[in-house]
Amino acid sequence: MNETSADSSTDSDDAWERWLHKLEFLKEMIVGVDLLVVVIAASVVTFCVNHVGNEWISFISDSKPAIATLGAFYSFALVFRTNICYSRWWEGRVLWGTIIVCTIRMAQQANLWIKEPVLVKRLSCLAIIFAYCCKAQLRGTGIEDESEDGAKLLRKGVISQEELDMISTQSGWQPYYCIDAMRAAISEGLKAEGKNDEWKKNAAQAAMEETICTLANSIGGCIRVRSTGLPVAYDDILNTTGAIFFTAACLAWAPGAGLYNPFVVLIVYTIVKMIIGVGSDMEDPFGHDESDLPLEKFCEEVDKQITAVDERAKLITFDLAYGPASHIPSERSSSYSTFPNRRGSPLANGDNDVESGQMSS
Description:
Layout: H1 2-30, H2 33-49, H3 54-62, H4 64-113, H5 117-138, H6 150-156, H7 161-168, H8 174-191, H9 198-227, H10 232-257, H11 261-283, H12 295-315, H13 348-360
């Protein structure tokens, strides 16, 4: 009973913290000196419009269709910018999905094709380190930084202090150190296989090299997304168009809205500001903003799944290719005898007896 109440209390606390985080995000996005400037300017314009002659009010009212056209152009430019920012966010999401899949695949391939346990463990650790190095790289820091997870990986035994120091002294991108180390471990692990089954060695090396190349392309794509923002001229044009639109709209709405005009302008301006703010956050999807990708969760999931791959390889007592011995049929049809027996397989012992019995009969 106490555990249930404790879990519910923890869930409610987490939900409350998420709401507070969202409110803080909205506060940072909306609140600013520009809101006060908009209210004061709109109030001054509204006061002046309502105290001029009727001919000016008539002229301003007749300009509403032109202002509506300007607003349509401004809305189109705003939506176009938001779509571009969203496409960058989506590309970063897809690239990180590829990183997650390929890091886990590297651990699976190592457990399948590398026979040396030390090198299998080495490749699994390098795959985990690679994910955390990618996160640090995309946030402009290094894995050794206090805000990153180098110390946590050191405590878990995923990385040694010597290698952490070596990575931190790299002048190039830290994820590429992991890629070089993976290639070295794979080369050494397949070399230990000897000269037998050369085709198997070549196939394993080609498959693992393809995984490494995909990892390299994915982190390269993420760095491209982070490094190349929107053209500066586009934001300048959008901001200029917005200033013209809100000035003209304030004049056009003043006769009809009256004293409510400053509040109407403020509401519309706040909505536009939030849309622009969300787009700006999505432009670089690898930061710490509310709308950014949860890189911490991605890396934790990589760590969790790779650890599960290694544990599964240790716990399973039967050959995955053939399954448990209890599921092997005691009598096989004649179609089974057309396949050659494999040395070391759980089917190898009983097969010769069956076949010899068939021949003797």
